[in-house]
Amino acid sequence: MARIQRFNPPPTWPRPPEGWQPPRGWVPDPSWGPVPDGWPLWVSERANPRAWGLALLSALGWLALLSLIGVVVSGGRFGAEAFGEVLAREVVAGVLTGVIAWFGRSRWPWWLYPLVVLGFSLLLSVVSTAGRMA
Length: 134
What we know:
By secondary structure, the protein is mainly alpha-helical. It has helices at residues 51-73, 80-103, 112-133; strands spanning 3-7, 42-46.
């Protein structure tokens, strides 16, 4: 939902690197040609337009990996209850990550999604374990 302003060069200008913004006092090279009439040099766009997809895909990846580890470690006795616990934790971690990225004011690189999902997953695991011990 958070929006950012992105520099939008005209078609005759070279494409700048991702995230580049002209510094104060910058002037384009005259050989690039003029800005066409009505061309918006700045456009508004979502900071993380694929936040939900990347967050839930990351959660699915962690679910698959953790389930595989559970099956291997338990010798194939990784039951429905254990899978349900991992599934619930990863879904919640994915949703929390999606919400934070969706409302974030800066663009997230793709690799940040699985790290944040893992962080939430570990936090939820610790809280769950502490709740069972109490």
